[in-house]
Amino acid sequence: MTTATARRDPPSPLVIGAVVWISSELLFFGSLFGSYFTLRAHAEGPWPPEGADVEVWAGAIGTVLLLVSSVTVHFAVTAARAGHDDLTRRWLLATIALGAAFLLLLAQEWANLSFSVSDHAYGTMFYTLTGFHGLHLLAGLVAMVVLIWRSTAGAVREGAIEVMSYYWHFVDVVWIALFTSVYLAG
Asked: What is the pLDDT of residues 42-51, one digit of tens each?
């Protein structure tokens, strides 16, 4: 009696590299969140301190922008799998627009906050968490611009767009954790 075994293709080196890299990013953000929660647990007085108010509405709008951008990047991957290069580029452009709107909203929020990075531990952690998240989001936007540019020359494989979407979804999930921990729970 023989049994048929399904043969699976091994994951591509690109996917393996992306998973390893995103795992290292998970450790990085895990360390930042660990620092935030440690400082919060050992804070003398209220957390956040008096006068360190963040705009929950801005964080909520940013959350909506990033959630919608996860949908648009998913549509870009779907279009790439179907071989629709123009549609892929349009979905990536929509994702870029949503991500850029998020960054502009974050910059506006930073400009209007009543505390700075050096005022207290909360300020340090707020700016560090949101700043590093913003830098990671910016890196994702740059990656999408490069993918669009290279796709016009036919030099992009569907796998590259899919791997970039893994990163984008990761950055979105980090924001949800950040919004919940810093904006909603304080």
From this structure: 999 999 999 8
Q: Provide the 3-class DSSP secondary structure of residue 46.
A: coil
The residue type at 168: W
Helix H or strand E segment including 146: helix 121-151
Q: Answer for the pair 165, 76: CB distance below 8 angstroms, yes or no.
A: yes
Q: pLDDT, tens digit, for every residue of 59-78?
A: 999 999 999 999 999 999 99
Look up the pTM and report it: 0.90
Neighbours of 134 (CB within 10 A): 19
Q: pLDDT for 133-184, tens place per residue?
A: 999 999 999 999 999 998 888 777 778 999 999 999 999 999 999 999 999 9
For 157, phi and psi rounded to 5 degrees?
-90, 155
Pair 125, 84: CB distance under 8 Å: no
For residue 71, count other CB atoms closer than 10 A to its CB: 13
Nearest to 59 by CA among 109, 115, 19, 126: 109
